[in-house]
Design goal:
α1 crosses α4 and α4 (65-86) runs antiparallel to α5. With 211 residues, the protein is mainly alpha-helical. 68% of the residues lie in helices and 5% in strands.
Length: 211
């Protein structure tokens, strides 16, 4: 009963993160830092989504890759379904595709590195998964080529200085993707703190040790 309850908690947390991130990614960060217009490079979703990798890695550590995949798929089904009500369909499609690819890659990398230094599996897995996730999400959500998924966002396609500071210009969504990945790397490092703190509490079960 405790094992089932723990898995349901992971599913609930994953769903919450996915839905919140899908909603928040629609809003650029309207602020300035050191003369940089952050709306040109960041959305609020960049700060919440990396938590999904922490949830996946904790599930993988405690219950193994098979259980982690079930949590990911459950979060995918529920999260994407709810996202159609909290965001536009194109964002939901992009998020679901990116989420599934990135999380499954994270699980695979984590499982290969789980017997190495405690920080290596969650850090490398989340960074590689985030890279794939970012590339898929921002391409599907904003690139003009993928208009088949829904109407293009004029603001995202407007040319602006890359990262808000370089002389070269590109569609604003490219700077969002770069800024998003940088934030994911930073948050990925920060997420090592709760992961390390929970390691001794969420000990691997027998199935996870045998993976």
């Amino acid at each position: 009963m405790l094992t089932k309850r723990s898995k349901l908690i992971y599913v609930a947390l994953m769903t919450l993160v996915v839905v919140a991130s899908n909603f928040l990614v629609q809003f650029p960060l309207n602020a300035a830092f050191a003369g940089i217009n952050l709306a040109d490079i960041l959305t609020w979703g960049a700060f919440t989504y990396p938590v999904a990798f922490l949830i996946t890695d904790l599930t993988n550590r405690q219950f193994g890759p098979q259980a982690a995949r079930k949590v990911v798929f459950a979060g995918f089904v529920v999260g994407v379904a709810l996202s159609f009500y909290t965001s536009v369909p194109r964002i939901a499609i992009a998020s679901g595709s990116a989420y599934l690819a990135g999380q499954l890659l994270d699980i695979s990398v984590f499982n290969r590195l789980r017997r190495q230094a405690w920080w290596r599996a969650p850090l490398v897995g989340s960074l590689i998964g985030s890279m794939l996730d970012t590339a898929i999400f921002f391409s599907f959500a904003f690139a003009a080529f993928f208009v088949v998924f829904g109407p293009n966002d004029p603001f995202a396609l407007e040319s602006a200085p890359i990262l808000g500071v370089l002389t070269a210009q590109a569609p604003r969504w490219i700077s969002w993707a770069i800024g998003d990945f940088v934030v994911k790397m930073i948050v990925g490092l920060v997420m090592l703190l709760p992961y390390g703190a929970l390691m001794n509490v969420l000990r691997p079960m027998q199935a996870a040790r045998a993976s």
